[in-house]
Amino acid sequence: MHGIGLSLPNRGILFGAITVPEMLELAEYADNSDYFDSVWVGDGLLAKPRLESVVSLAAISARTTRVKLGVCCLATFPLRQPVLFATQWASLDVVSGGRTILAVCLGATTARSGTNVVGELQAMGVKGSERVPRLEESIQLIRRLWDGPTSADGDFWSFPEVDLQPKPVQNPCPIWIASNPNPSKLPPHRFAAAIDRVGRLADGWQSTMITPEEFGQRWDEVRERAEFHGRDSRAMSSAVHLMINLDDDVAAARAEAKRFLDVYYSIDATDEVLDRWGAYGPTETVLKRLGQYTDRGLDVPILRFASFRQSEQMERATTELLPELAKQQTQVTQ
User: Fold this and answer.
1) DSSP letter string over 99-134?
2) What domain range is 235 assigned to?
3) How many C-beta neighbours within 10 Å does residue 197 have?
4) β-strands 237-246, 278-281 pairing
5) For the chain, what is the mean pLDDT?
6) How many domains does the chain have?
């Protein structure tokens, strides 16, 4: 998969950054544009609440006909009952005509995970130490449920043979893993396991808050592990969730982006965090930064406007940024 993604701030509805009608209008605008190939929403529950992601995508699917529909890190995946969720996601794939991309993640307890993560785990009856094995078991179980009649005898889920209906339109229906393992913050064995997990289980890799150099290195490592496990790494896709703010005044662009991200993620974003997360300023500055990811093999830049002026940013991006970014991608893939 290649192209440009639009990330809609479905948490922003809670603090006035966007309304539901505005979010759906932006999705429809992206669907009718010549530049966006996918539309994405975020995911959270109690620690970082928002409009629920599957419900949001179902609403978006009714307003669109062309773009792929995905989740930027389904953080609640380890908390979800896999049979029920497999049915929900398969239904979304049917409703949308086979346009879904499921990007699951651990919902790690980082600063961006929101408040009271422990309380969220307790409310869902899940231990923090179970997140990794639950994610792996659920990925494999959901694939089997989508493929045909199956039973389960795992560490978390056990039941006799069932035949889930409906099946997704897509066969196979893609499951990506969203992760950002940092070797400077993880023990070597945990970093290696995180990279191996993507190469072993995922149809694609999604990341965020990562420099172009780090992305290129991790992407090479992921594809090496995929080949090690006998998989065709050329069939895998990559995406990075990137924050942007277009403004001729660099200081103004960075200031608004920081205000937006601080509220959205309940953080105090430093300059280093902002720089790792995206690009802010004139079109040329943002385009140059995005090009550095493309040069390192990025297939899908997923762009979120880090702004309280979503429609205005979209208009400027459509006029100035997206045509050049599309050309940039074409040149690299030729």
Assistant:
1) -EEEEE-----SGGG-S-HHHHHHHHT--GGGHHHH
2) 4-333
3) 20
4) parallel
5) 94
6) 1
